[in-house]
Design goal:
With 86 residues, the chain is mostly helical. The protein has four helices and no strands. The chain is globular, with a radius of gyration of 18 Å. The relative contact order is 0.16.
Amino acid sequence: MNKLTLATAALCLSVAGSAIANAAAAVPCEDMLKQLRDAEKAASLSEPDKSKVTELESKGIERCNADDDKRADQFFDEALKLVIKK
């Protein structure tokens, strides 16, 4: 094998390994969304906080629908922090 073929194979393995590690680290976004919605039911938020939580939830749902659980979980986590800060 030449050096270019070996380098290409190594890069492919590295990218695949990274994708697997990222997928394993993320919580299923549907679970995070359920946690957020449960917390929202119990919270009384100010209008600005409620608006921000709704915005973050929408962004999270968009990423969840795109099978990007890691980014969706980040949006849901940020929203949860707003909801439970009271």
